[in-house]
Amino acid sequence: MRRSACRLALQSLAVLAAFGASTFYAAAQDYSVGSIQIAKPWTRATPKGSSVAGAYMSISNKGAAADRLVGGSTDVAARFEVHRMNVENGVMTMRPVDGGLEIKPGETVELKPGSFHVMLIGLKKPLEKGQRVKATLEFANAGKVDVEYAVEAIGAPGPMPGGMQHKH
């Protein structure tokens, strides 16, 4: 009886370790389509009643030709738009990026708070810390790629550090 209890305990630990490893790998993922690589997509939790959220990531172009992030979609919001924040005459403004966001060959563009970012408009429900939000990004040349945004705490400055990179 004692051996079977030990065996069961070891099996349970193995299952928990496997679950923990899969969660660890899911914490920070990279995605790619064509010559485009997307790293660490994340967003912030939103307060109840909020209709918008910003989403962030870095996009690298490993190819020889420029490409553009022209749009995307997600089931959690009615619209998915690429925006840029600027300070004009001492006033911060936010506007959609006409024609999409260019990623030149060999360059990486950071989508981050206060700069380029994605706006999820018309949220269907609040985003909660720990959740994963599925979305599809669309590039002019490389095409579409499915990603998951990790939802961080309200006011988080960026994605949580750590985690392993996992290529798709």
Average per-residue pLDDT, rounded, comes to 83
CATH homolog superfamily: PCu(A)C copper chaperone
Large-scale geometry: globular
Structural class category? mainly beta
Largest sheet: 11 strands, mixed
Q: Gap between N and C termini, in Å?
A: 45 Å
Total beta strands = 11
- What low-confidence regions span 5 or more consecutive residues with pLDDT below 50? 1-27, 162-168
The share of residues in helices is: 10-25%
Using brief descriptors, characterize the structure shown.
disordered N terminus, globular, Immunoglobulin-like, 1 helix, single chain, mainly beta
What does this structure look like?
- This protein has 168 residues and is mostly beta strands.
- The relative contact order is 0.27.
- The radius of gyration is 19 Å and the shape is globular.
- The protein has one helix spanning 2-26; strands at residues 30-33, 36-44, 52-61, 67-74, 77-88, 91-96, 101-103, 108-111, 116-123, 132-139, 143-152.
- Mean pLDDT is 83; it is low at 1-27 and 162-168.
- It has a single domain, classed as Immunoglobulin-like.
- The protein contains 1 helix and 11 strands.
- Strand 1 (30-33) and strand 2 form a beta hairpin.
- The chain starts with a helix and ends in a 16-residue tail after the last strand.
- Strands 1, 2, 3, 4, 5, 6, 7, 8, 9, 10 and 11 form an 11-stranded mixed sheet that branches.
- The longest helix has 25 residues, at 2-26.
